[in-house]
Amino acid sequence: MIDNYLNIGGIALICTYLLIAAFIFNLYANTHYNKDLTTKKYFLYGFYFKMFVAIFFALIYDQYYNRGGDTFSYFYGASRMGDVLFKDPLAYFKMFFGFITESNVYDLPANLGYFPSFRDPSVYAVHRFISPFTILGFKNYYLTIIVLNVMNYIIIWRAFMFFKKIFPTKEKILAIGLLFIPSVAFWGSGIVKDSFTYTFALVFIVSFYKLFFLRKIGILNLVKIIISVYIIISLKPYILYALLAGGFTWMGFKYILMVKSKVLRVFVFPVIMLAVAFGGMYVLTGAANIAGGSYKDVDSMLSKAVISQQDLKQDYYGGNSFDIGDFDPTIGGAASVTPAAIIAGLYRPFLWEANSVVMLLSGLENMILLLLTIYVLLRAGPVFFLKQLAKEPFLIFCFVFTLIMAMGIGLSTSNFGALVRFKIPLIPFFLMGWLFVLDEYRKSKRIKNG
């Protein structure tokens, strides 16, 4: 029998959870932000928007898609694993913390009602990460999503407040990028991998900055880095690679700007960038060894990209596919289609390619991003754009991270349904990068005009 989550009792529970969450967040806002009404407004509006989109996600997949897709599969698996807590708490915690692996999985009792599968370890990881929320949500799909998004919003808000301290004059841009992008909020709200990879990518970025820029080597910060790396590498290792590449490039340019003499910078530049490059490669190699499988080296990743791209073109994915062209699983083969891959990762589906309500939402956003890119480059000009990159290393991170992510996604994805989900970690930084440049251009014009 399929549970009816929207009967009278279910709707009453959903409303109760939402009211409790709203009460707590309003109480926190009144306690902490009464002297900063703008921040209070962003905090509460961001929370309401997040909850609205989360319920909308649940309704779409429950009612419109008739419980299809990965989200309900993840939910049912996580719910069964959550039940293990009440049957055999030790077994549950062994699974949750990753102590049950393919080598010792048959040591588990046979009557638990949940047995991990290692055919796709990332699915098992989703079950583990979601299971506490199914327990708190009493195995109700809507309640689980509400509890999950309370945690997600707290993480996103803390990232917003952190970046606000670094860029106090860019609060509105940060709010738009981190709190109010519809597709990011939508795909980052469901019981899917992307809810975790996006939010913990933000945890990683903040912790990375504290560690390498502020030199805060505290236990809590190290724990946050370890947890974020573990979660991302368990679900989508390529996101971690893009974060590391962007992060170390960001760090290199930050250290270069610390050299006051422009003449000396010319000599210091190659030394710092080489040191950062070697350090980054060492960390990337270590991350690749941990990820293993299809992510252990470039050849393996390219082979996986080709296989994934061909698979996602098949008819059983609903025919919602696009084609950047076939390529061989070699660096040269990938390079031949890289421009098309980046365009796909950044700007597709185009508005005219949308064939559903969800795709239309993404198509509208992509059109705005494309028009914004063209507008900034034409209005401010490439020279001003490059000067801003040289002045603000965070912009370097934004564009390096997004371009690497876009390339990887474009090479490995040929299905719009997958594309719109996979790209959500890059959209906020791509958007904020262009808005930062546009804001600085407008400031320079105001100063010039007196």
List descriptors.
450 residues; mainly alpha; 19 helices; 0% strand
What this model shows, in words?
It is a single chain. The chain is mostly helical. It has two domains: 8-179, no CATH class; 297-450, no CATH class. Helix content is 75%, strand content 0%. The protein is built from 19 helices and no strands. It has helices spanning 8-32, 37-64, 70-87, 89-96, 121-136, 141-166, 171-179, 182-187, 193-212, 219-235, 237-257, 262-291, 298-311, 331-347, 357-379, 382-391, 393-412, 416-422, 427-448. The longest helix is centred in the middle third of the chain and has 30 residues, at 262-291. The mean pLDDT is 86.
Which band does the percent of strand residues land in? under 5%
Give a quick account of the main beta sheet: strands, pairing sense, barrel closure: none
Using the alpha-carbon principal axes, give the shape.
globular
Overall tally of domains = 2
Average pLDDT over all residues? 86
Q: Whole-Å distance between the termini?
A: 71 Å
Order of helices and strands: HHHHHHHHHHHHHHHHHHH
| Low-pLDDT sequence parts | none
- The proportion of residues forming helix, as a percent range, comes to over 70%
Helix run count: 19
Overall radius of gyration: 23 Å
Number of strands: 0
Structural class: mainly alpha
Helix and strand layout, with pairings?
Blueprint: H1 8-32, H2 37-64, H3 70-87, H4 89-96, H5 121-136, H6 141-166, H7 171-179, H8 182-187, H9 193-212, H10 219-235, H11 237-257, H12 262-291, H13 298-311, H14 331-347, H15 357-379, H16 382-391, H17 393-412, H18 416-422, H19 427-448
